[in-house]
Amino acid sequence: MAPAGGAWPPIAAALLAFALIALATRLAPRPMLIADRFWPGTGWLEAGLIAVYAGFVMRAMRTPEGARKTRPRIWRLFTVVFFGQLLLGLLGFERFLMSGQLHLPVPALIVAGPIYRGGGYFMVALFLSTIVLVGPAWCSHLCYIGAWDDTASRARKTPQPLPKWRPKARLAILIAVVAAALALRVGGASPATAAWVGAGFGLIGVGIMLTASRRTGAMAHCTTWCPVGLAANILGKLNPFRLRIGEGCTECRVCTRACRYEALTLDDIRRRMPGLSCTLCGDCLASCRHRQLHYRFPGLSPDAARTLFLVLVVGLHAAFLALARI
Ligand code: SF4
Ligand code: SF4
Hints:
Bound molecules: iron/sulfur cluster
Number of strands: 2
Shape: globular
Strand content: under 5%
């Protein structure tokens, strides 16, 4: 698949990253950029550098092969910066923390936290705004924990099938997380108790990465354990971006071995669309010799749809890199 759009996609990704950072710094009650925190007034320089970075990332991801190599690297970079800042904050360098008020970095708490607290919707709003822009791509480009599962799964080159009960289990886990948050609230559990429950859930998730994801090569944590994964998959259907399989597909199943989200079973391929767990990661595109896997967006060619998706997701990634911290 040839890259589309000439020179404009890197420029568009850079402008989007800059605009998102400018918007966040204008709306936030405290300096959001590290440069502004250490040297007030220099945040624009950091925003400019991040915008240039977004342009280079977009360029690197223009071809499906380039995206397949670049996506895990930039995702890992984000999580290293995110948790590196948390570590520095815990060591006493408070300017690396968002506000000084610590939160558990467990994605399940995006769902469970507001139910338990009856408020605190910032992360829900942030998550939903990414759904509006890029559908379920939170789970392949933006989540601070998803990159851990991606790294763990890459211990095995080719993903193996997960158990058949996986879809039912992830629905049961989502329901259980909502019920547990409600029970903690109704039962009057203290914030410390709720934090221990949340931390325990997160630690089990890490255990799943280190065992099931490493052993199978599939993202067992993100496609089974994490309730935000299922929420992103379901709510992501409200967004018009889709992945589709062309009628020229030979059903060779080479793409099945490229998908770590278990979204390309033989049934999915026969239906000519990926399963619910697809996160629009794009890894499968480079695997198909017949070029039968495409992004879709109403009114756009497959190539333009992919370019638009990448501009949006790269702009978001770069803004997250500059702004996201605990
Ligand atoms: S690799 Fe291409 S041709 Fe083979 S099953 Fe997947 S989409 Fe079809
Ligand atoms: S079907 Fe393709 S785009 Fe969707 S999760 Fe699997 S590899 Fe990624």
